[in-house]
Amino acid sequence: MALNEQRFYILTALASGPLHGYAIAEEIARVSDGSHAPRPGSLYHAIDKLIEQQLLELDREEVVDGRLRRYYRLTETGALRLTDEATRRAASAQVALRRLQPGLGTAFGTLA
To answer: Which of 9, 29, 36, 108 has the maximum number of C-beta atoms within 10 A of its C-beta?
Structure first.
């Protein structure tokens, strides 16, 4: 089953190493060129679901400015799931690009 966009971006954000929730949201915005900006409630709900699916796990907790900060990391299963999903998405994009290619010079006019 395919990952939805938010879960895909959460796993992608954590592929480089553990992050806390706010940093995950910032990384999602960065890697998506600003097209995705998760709200805290939906972000933490998705993180909880990914933990239930054993794709993420708690890395550590620390107190910063009197507030608890939780860091999450990919599990081995999560890394494999992200690899599968990224491969699937890349293959789908390649199909779309191949289908567009014949029409670039004809049906859609010439692209500069």
So the answer is: 9
